[in-house]
Specification:
With 470 residues, the chain is an alpha/beta fold. It has helices spanning 66-75, 79-92, 97-109, 113-126, 131-143, 147-160, 166-178, 182-195, 200-212, 216-229, 237-245, 254-275, 280-292, 312-315, 331-338, 351-357, 383-390, 429-439; strands at 301-306, 321-328, 345-348, 367-372, 393-404, 417-419, 425-427, 441-454, 457-468. Bound molecules: S-adenosylmethionine.
Amino acid sequence: MVRRIPSPEAPHGQEAQVAPAANPVPNPVLDPVLPLVAPEGALTGLAAAVPAGSTPLLSPEAALSPQEEADARFAAGDVEGAIALWRTIVAADREDLWSLLALVDALFAGNRAGEAALALHEARQYRPANRQLMALLAEAERRQGRFDVALPLYEALASERPLDAPGDVAGFVECLVGASRLELALKEAYAAIRRWPDEAALRFWLARALEEACEQQKAADAYRACLARDPENTLGAAERMAALSEGRPETLPAAFVRSLFDQYAHRFSKHLVEKLGYRGPALLRAALEEAVGEPLVGRGWSVFDLGCGTGLSGEVLADLAGELHGVDLSERMLEEAAGRGIYKSLAAEDVVKAVERRPGGATGEGWDLVVACDVLNYIGALEPLFTAVAGKLAPEGLFALTIERLEGGEGAAPMDFTFQESRRFAHSPVYLRQVAEAAGLAIRLERFETLRVDRNVPVIGGFYVLERAG
Ligand SMILES: C[S@@+](CC[C@H](N)C(=O)[O-])C[C@H]1O[C@@H](n2cnc3c(N)ncnc32)[C@H](O)[C@@H]1O
């Protein structure tokens, strides 16, 4: 076993010390083995600490020290035996940092990160300022997928000075990706790669962040660079590359959408309407009026605005709604929408999950109107959403939506949808009709008009009003 060395900049006894509490909190990792104060001669009965079924002591005649014995067990693959011995050793001397680090390594090797976290929490009572313990605790939490706990620890470490080891930066970037903070994840990963160009894990987490940011080509390059440094593929870069090369994504990663619109939120409404000539909400309202054939003001409908954004779509529907609810992945967009004061509720959630989770309508009798204005172009495959909406419409309820029309999708071999250079999806009307029919929805109105102008090219939108079939 390669022993983890206590960090030289915070050697035992030099960093800020906290006197152990008179009655330290019992630690379930350490305490079942020995009482807090090891009785006289506790370490002489080591064999008793090794679990039954573990390999016998390796070389009794060699008179190994307890630490050597634990190391030898670990090296021989007896992880459980090593853990039991290290626990005994650490319980006898709670301030033995070397042995604690070895215990943590053994617990990590035994996939027991939760127990490692408990041991580290206790060790930090004695050494609260020790960066190595804090980084290991962050790792233990991250290994359990507890990014919300690990992230503040990494952030506290990084705020003092750059993280000390490439593995810590890789862990930090992993947590940032998990929390959808892609901009910072990319910044940290690129900076660390300049410091440690040969570290495969950094390349891997750079690639994951790029993938989430929908930079497929750059992500593939980063996976390739990872594999060059990790030819055994221990990190799984080969599988991720294969998935990438399978072509278009089925939908956009939630982290990408959230991060894109969080950044865009404060200037979204002005930019879209004034610079891109965005007309989606007004045209969809007009399509609805035409489909119903009567003015809609004052209907008192229960309306669910999917991907409500800053509320541009909600604004044109407020006068027909008895109550208006919105959902969006981006919290910044939702803050802008909340400022309009027209929504009864706003939730930060994926649209499919939100439709499935909610009962539908004001009293659960189904929505009178579900709207998805300029949203489906961030969602590739439409089947899950259409099925969910169809199940939550009121008997006379309507589903009003827009798509970006896929040109040429109507040929002999019609296409379903493509992922465009703009990093939005375009859907073919043929596909939309098929999905609607399969979900039990009929088309009451279909029309095509300019949705917005992108780099001087009109983006043709499909405007649809669907209703329950039959
Ligand atoms: C172009 S904006 C349209 C906003 C608004 N409907 C309008 O017409 O102005 C697209 C919005 O859809 C949201 N969005 C995209 N995919 C989503 C998903 N799967 N779940 C929830 N919201 C999503 C984005 O966060 C963004 O706010």
